[in-house]
Structure formats: structure tokens, C-alpha cells
Design brief:
Elements: H1 2-6, H2 15-19, H3 26-41, H4 60-63
Length: 72
């Protein structure tokens, strides 16, 4: 579950994999998912500190879609 929360901002340092008691290859999974997200959003975590991760931002256009509600 944690992967979904950090997927678009992970720089794949490997600390989560080192700490995993079940020896799950988390870094490999994050790498594969990051490639897919990068291709979709044209975003690479850690390359531009001023650019917000795509899954952490909401555009005005997205907020104007009927039926979409966002709690702040």
C-alpha cells in the first residue's frame, strides 16, 4: 500500500527494500511502475525540485469535472 502513496515521488534509493523483513524486491517493483508513470506523465522523480509530482496535483480543469469532489 505504501508504494501507491510514494510511487510518483520515489527516487528508488532502495531503503524500503533493505528494511523489508520479507525480502520483497520492492525497488524492482517501484522501478517498473515508475517507468510506466514516467511515460504517462512525462515526469521523473527528483529531477526538478520545483515540479510537483503528477499524482499530488489537481488542475482547475480536473476540479471542474461534474461529480468530482476533493476534500482539502
Amino acid at each position: 500500500m505504501r508504494i501507491t502513496h510514494v510511487m510518483d515521488s520515489c527516487v528508488n534509493c532502495g531503503q524500503c527494500q533493505d528494511a523489508c523483513p520479507m525480502e520483497v524486491p520492492i525497488s524492482r517493483l517501484i522501478f517498473l511502475l515508475s517507468k510506466k508513470i514516467g511515460a504517462i506523465f512525462k515526469y521523473e522523480p527528483g529531477m526538478d525540485a520545483t515540479e510537483l509530482p503528477p499524482l499530488r496535483t489537481i488542475t482547475d480543469q480536473e476540479l471542474s469535472i461534474d461529480g468530482v469532489e476533493v476534500a482539502f
